[in-house]
Amino acid sequence: MPATTGLVYTPFGRDTWRDPFTLYRRLRDEDPVHRSPDGYWVLSRFQHVFDAARDTTTFSSAHGLTFHDEREELGLAPTIVMMDPPDHSRSRRLVSRSFTPRHVAGLEADLRPLVRARLRQLREAGAADFVAGLARPVPSWVVAHFLGVPEEDRYLFDRWTEALVQGGAAQPAGAGTALAELYGYFTDLVDRRRHQPGDDLVSTLLAADDEGAGLGIEGILGYAFVLIAGGNDTTTGLLAGAAELLTAYPDQRRRLLVEPALVPGAVEELLRLTSPVQGLCRVAERDAVIADTTIGRGERVLLCYGAANRDTREFGPDAEVLDVTRRIERLLSFSSGAHFCLGAAAARLQGRVVLEELLQECPAFAVDADAGVFADGAFTRRYESLPFVAEGL
Fold first, then answer.
1. Distances (CA, A) of 103 to 246, 269, 292, 343
2. Is 5 exposed, middle or buried (0-12, 13-18, 19+ CB in 10 A)?
3. Is it the case that residue 169 has pLDDT exceeding 50?
4. Closest CA to 346 of 132, 65, 64, 102
5. Which of 206, 201, 102, 95 is CA-nearest to residue 148?
6. What is the DSSP string of 29-52?
7. 228 confidence band (pLDDT: 50, 70, 90)
8. What is the pTM of this model?
9. Are 355 and 233 in contact (CB under 8 A)?
């Protein structure tokens, strides 16, 4: 399909994340296999993105997931997210047991009191920043818990995440400094866990290394990098985005207040509409034809999950509207196929617990989306700050 005059995809950022959806709509309808002037392709329809995400033979993750090869910018050894099967499959098996729904469910007993305490602080303050008060510290706690980081060190995660995720493309020097700090910290933590193993990911990886996995400190650091960079700001995006949507759709909030059993399904709908990771790149390993358009071998392709998750062809004519009773068969918020997000169960748990407690503690809350500020970065859409009032509706 020929490109439509005036229709150009350029990477989003702090000043443009407020509304990527108008462009997404036009891309889906007018130019679903879009050639960016910067030389990469953009897929925006659900079926195209879904198929490409699952076809790791054609669309490879081994050349980086951004518009450039970030391994070269940050000096990274390949991490699990930058591998294709079978290497990816072997690396995933080492840690997959730690992220099963059953294992993750064990977090709830400690997570719920934390969420409740944070919400009570927000309610007592009356007006506060929802991100600083809840949406950032909750996922930071979860990631630190998985990695076995002591409580007194957990403040470091916010700073590292900010630098690694946002700085990787825009400020590689800052990201490199954060990576060096992370490396030094985890070198020490790995040494501690060799002598004092625990029920955490670092200890699991050390045990696997002792059994011949061949990870070394570089490999363990890679897992930590992925978990910190991929687990913190994405869930922040879900939680703050959910608060925005439930403020914008008070009728849907009332349904949840009356029927709390709808909350788990509502989390899926909120994941669909927020799509914290709006897209990631792949590189074509061979020529591929999509919608009569040929993507050449070696060309970079953006799989635009945020656009695909609002495709009326998949979700019906009201795809861009919040409906907490919607039945969702397929979703791209966690990608699909071999690279389906390891942390999906943890993100869903946090979404459910926060939503249940938020509706219980502050049923009339409101956030001011117009006054909210988005974080920078071209791939994750999340608020950096979002004004909150406990009694706004």
1. 29, 24, 45, 12
2. exposed
3. no
4. 102
5. 201
6. HH-SEEE-TTS-EEE-SHHHHHHH
7. confident
8. 0.93
9. no
